[in-house]
Write a structure and sequence with these properties.
Rossmann fold, 6 helices, Riboflavin_synthase-like_b-brl, alpha/beta, six-stranded antiparallel β-sheet, FNR_nucleotide-bd, 12 strands, Elongation Factor Tu (Ef-tu), domain 3, binds flavin-adenine dinucleotide
Length: 257
Amino acid sequence: MVRASRPLSSNSELNPDTFTAFKISSVEQLTEDTYQYKFELPGNSSLGLSLGQHIVLRGMVNGLEVQRAYTPVSPVNAEGYFEVLIKCYKAGLMSQYIKSWIEGDTVFWRGPFGGFPYSPNQYGELLMLASGTGTAPMLPILQYITENEDDETFITLVGCFRTFENIYLKPLLQDQSRYWNVRTCYVLSQESSLEKLPWSYQENTHTGHITENLIKKMINSCRRKPFVLICGSVAFNEDMTRCLKAIGLKEDSYFVF
Ligand SMILES: Cc1cc2nc3c(=O)[nH]c(=O)nc-3n(C[C@H](O)[C@H](O)[C@H](O)COP(=O)(O)OP(=O)(O)OC[C@H]3O[C@@H](n4cnc5c(N)ncnc54)[C@H](O)[C@@H]3O)c2cc1C
């Protein structure tokens, strides 16, 4: 995505048409190629996103302006900061720029865009099928529901990663899975056995790839009729959509980010 330069906004409010500067307050490496970046917001302000919305980053790479979308993982009501989870690809243009970031750097974002329209108790259960950084839009939704005592939506989060080490934000996911209405499970494509995993993960983890059969099992074990959320690579999204259609789900029963 390479576009002509856009004007920079001088205020600190996020805007879809102009870029706003945000300062990086911390950088944390989560896996060999994925980093969590925290950005400062003035005072106790929040970014003002609604659920599932993403923002667009501007980078200059080899003299070219590059723009890419990223979905904050912090709760939508987080005050004074927001966080993004970014996987850096060796051959990726924006990835090269992002890898150079250090605490204190200023980078430019615009937005918000997209989103998943949601109101509390709208669905009996949400079945989240997420692969890698596709967990990003799921996390604010998960926290929005668990923070609201009046929202009794059940949630099943299925996180697909290569290995146990590649599961992002384990402490947050473990905390969330302690809520009465949340269950998490993992599908690890490059683990051959569950034996070396911590005991607490063995029961809810599968090895290999997520299959139509596994999705069917997940749907059948949902406590209420699920609405399915899908987020991952284009190939993952297509594969999950194909599986859901084969199982007999109608298009109004799922949402692809
Ligand atoms: C709405 C939306 C939200 C997004 N949110 C996030 C997010 O929260 N976190 C995040 O990390 N990314 C997210 N992405 C992906 C992100 O926008 C970029 O596509 C990604 O960072 C790669 O950009 P790049 O310029 O580094 O790579 P590019 O220069 O675009 O790609 C170069 C090469 O990198 C590799 N590559 C790039 N993307 C992929 C991929 N998905 N799978 C496998 N190989 C790939 C390939 O080898 C490719 O040929 C989101 C995308 C969209 C559309």
